[in-house]
């Protein structure tokens, strides 16, 4: 089985660039995990636990229905509601930040939904904001053909993420899973302007205790640092005079497709 469908640790980085109306860019190193949901109960080692306390851990309640229930039936039911059950009849790999010492905040997690031959057919982008709200964007080709690395998908922005942008415009998504590399690009376009470029990219390696130990030594405040960086960059934008937008009510539907 290819590394893309195996439990893996990804070490890489996040880049975020604002292009308009004020230029602002930052990048930092991070690590995350990719977990095949059909084998979730078999994953674990001395430093990583599923539904148990370890230095790094994963809990069902952080995703899906958020009630601790099994994630694979949840995503299968969501895919069926959107007419994607037959196309996405293979492995579902969840890419997300693990808990570190029990704490996690995931700005966005990705559910990579494959067919039985291992081809990527759909991706659920599960977005969280710092107000405790979430919304998901489900992307797939209208004819449900496999997703290639050169493909790009547009989806209307309907969910409040940053107070420095209104809830309007379109996201453009691009996904790459190949040769041990996992990469997601998300761009925001509005009113004729390319406003934001975001990329999270890293190299996959087996989800082993040795790699996790190196991540802990290299990024000791990894998940807490995500929240700290969000607020630090927000302060920088305020000092640059970027307009602040009030948070609207979240969308009634939990998923946009």
From TrEMBL:
This is DUF1365 domain-containing protein. It holds the Pfam family DUF1365. It comes from the Bacteria. InterPro entries: DUF1365. It comes from Niveibacterium umoris.
């Amino acid at each position: 089985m290819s590394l893309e469908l195996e439990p893996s640790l990804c070490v890489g980085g996040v880049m975020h660039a604002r292009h308009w109306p004020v230029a602002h860019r930052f990048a930092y190193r991070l690590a995350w995990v990719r977990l095949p949901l059909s084998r979730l109960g078999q994953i674990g080692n001395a430093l990583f636990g599923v539904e148990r306390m370890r230095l790094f851990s994963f809990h069902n309640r952080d995703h899906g229905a958020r009630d601790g229930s099994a994630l694979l039936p949840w995503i299968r039911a969501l895919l069926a509601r959107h007419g994607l059950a037959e196309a996405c009849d293979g492995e579902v790999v969840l890419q997300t930040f693990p808990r570190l010492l029990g704490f996690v905040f995931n700005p966005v997690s990705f559910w990579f939904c494959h067919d039985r031959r291992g081809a990527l057919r759909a991706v659920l982008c599960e977005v969280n904001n710092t107000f405790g709200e979430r919304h998901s964007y489900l992307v797939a080709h209208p004819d449900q053909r496999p997703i290639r690395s050169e493909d790009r998908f547009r989806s209307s922005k309907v969910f409040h993420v940053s107070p420095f942008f209104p809830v309007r415009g379109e996201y453009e998504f691009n996904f790459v899973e190949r040769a041990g590399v996992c990469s997601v690009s998300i761009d925001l376009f509005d009113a004729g302007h390319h406003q934001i470029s975001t990329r999270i990219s890293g190299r996959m390696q087996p989800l082993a205790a040795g790699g996790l130990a190196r991540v802990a030594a290299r990024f000791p405040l990894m998940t807490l640092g995500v929240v700290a960086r969000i607020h630090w960059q927000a302060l920088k934008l305020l000092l640059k005079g970027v307009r602040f937008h009030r948070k609207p009510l979240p969308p009634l539907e939990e998923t946009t497709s």
